[in-house]
Amino acid sequence: MIVLAVESSCDETSVAIVRNGKEVLSNVVLSQIDIHKAFGGVVPEIASRNHIEYITRVFDEALSKANMTPKDIDLVAVTEGPGLIGSLLVGINAASAFAFANQIPLMGVNHMLGHMYAAGIDSEIKFPALVLLVSGGHTELIYAKDHLDFNVLGQTYDDAVGEAYDKVARTLGLPYPGGPIIDKLAHEGKPIYDLPRPVINQDNLDFSFSGLKSAVINLIHNKKQRGEEVDPKDVAASFQESVIDVLITKTQQALEKYPVKQLIVGGGVSANKGLRRRLFEEIKDVEIIIPKMMYCTDNAAMIGAAAYYQFQKKGALPNYLLGGYST
Q1: How far is CA 255 from the centre of its chain?
Q2: What torsion, rounded to 10 degrees, do the Cα atoms 216, 221, 222, 228 define?
Q3: Whether the Cβ atoms of residue 82 and residue 51 lie closer than 8 Å to each other
Q4: Is-contact 38 112, C-beta < 8 A?
Q5: Which CATH class is domain 124-290?
Q6: Per-residue three-class SS string for 127-193
Q7: 88, 128, 159, 266: which could form a disulfide with 115 (CB 3.0–4.6 Å)?
């Protein structure tokens, strides 16, 4: 099955062509990072307008790189949420128009399902599995019994981990996106500041990062008021150590309660080198699979991979209308 997939949930305009959920024939990603840097974060209206401007070209480039025409496509898949509503609508309308014009079945795919199946592009997913999803908008632990058979075990009460990274970076005066910069600085600094590990000892698998973010902001503010210098490297190292302690502790707690064959880690924060290193150092009793760096952040290949497995369970929509197929 050859799937043309569309991803436009935030500020990346992406179209990919994927065969059988594994073979990525093309994966074109047009990033808007340089546009949004001036604002310190994604501006939804600007993001959706740029999707409109470039999405047709991204379609054409994806087909050209795969050396295919619309006649070669068996299924069109598109992210239907969660995400920025304006950005999502651009991708949904473009995918719907392409499917309708070429008489191809259409399928809506949950964005977080895509992040999970990104790990399956280069590795074989084994069930049951524990899934740790860490991104700018989500932090979740999920028990996956089988394809599309999931139970959410825990999620964030407030800020997602990626959001906390960006806000701490902004407080330190670092450019957007903050996550990769904090990760880089953390390896150059020392975790000398005693920061909280929110809800780490609670008898549940939920997360909270708002208090940690506030603790960092207060630390910086108080030191500046006293005329003391703050080394961004040491703040980054302290913050990242706290975040990773929480993520790994909660993951280990989940593994103790739910024996699985595999730990799948996905989402933009799964690209974090510090998190990757400590996962493999500290979690030894289960196979860990993490997507390649190119598939960690938002991209359409992950949507194409997820769509293949979703199609096996649910089929597609021959009337080109989305709805009822969210996971």
Answers
A1: 21
A2: 100
A3: no
A4: no
A5: alpha beta
A6: CCEEEEEECCCCEEEEEEEECCEEEEEEEECCCCHHHHHHHHHHHCCCCCCHHHHHHHHHCCCCCCC
A7: 266
Q: Which pTM was predicted?
A: 0.93
CB 74 within 8 A of CB 99: no
Question: Each residue of 281-321: pLDDT tens digit?
Answer: 999 999 999 999 999 999 999 999 999 999 988 766 544 44
Grouping H, G, I as helix, E, B as strand and the rest as coil, residue 123 is coil
124-290 has the same fold as 2-116+296-314: yes
Predicted confidence (pLDDT) per residue in 220-265, tens digit: 999 989 999 999 999 999 999 999 999 999 999 999 999 999 999 9
From its phi and psi, is residue 96 left (phi > 0), alpha (psi between -120 and 50) or beta? Answer: alpha
Q: What residue spans define the domains of the chain?
A: 2-116+296-314, 124-290
Residue whose entry in the numeric block shows the structure tokens 């990760």? 183
